[in-house]
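Q: Here's a chain of 220 amino acids. Please give me its 3D structure as tokens.
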Amino acid sequence: MNLVIPILLAILLLIPASWNKIRERNHALDEAEAAYMSTDFEESVRRHLALISDQQITDPQVKFNLALSYQNNGQEEEALKTYSEISGSQQLQIASLGANQAGVLEGRESNYKEALAYFKTALLKNPDNEVARYNFELLSRWLEENEEEEKEQQDQEEEEKLEPSNYAKRMKAQADAFLDQFRFKEALETMQKALEIDETVRYYEGYMNNLNDINEIDNQ
């Protein structure tokens, strides 16, 4: 009987301590949520960091709220880092949300390929994430179209930079002489043979295309 009383006392001492810890934890969660809902994002960052450090809360949802607070507080680098961590979570829905937000931040910095990779991760984590699907498809199409435009522009710039050598100019003059005699085939062959040994003859590519068209018509 004497042993029972100390045991009961120990249980009674432990239970209030446990309750206090739960109450403090819930209060901290409420304060963090209240700071975010009131758009006091600086305070929200502090409160959510305290949840992680003081309350030892590692729930991905808390980290996601921290990342949102970072983002709205203008701390994009910290937000991206936190979203990236969340994207590896085993909680697939929250991981998908984190990956999508990381993609949005990368896209705003014109890191389009990195953004696309994050949107893809978001879809792999949760195929039902329609926002991530829209972002992925929109960015994919834009990158494809933009790459084609960039290639065309680069090709045009290369052509503009290309200057014909004296040899290329001499061959062009010979082709013109054949052209004056309506000897279209010889004019075209002159330019084609010249191109085989001198890349700068490509400066006259439009001229050669016209010769080719005329020669095809002449042979019909």
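Q: Can you summarize the key feature?
A: The first helix runs from residue 4 to 37.
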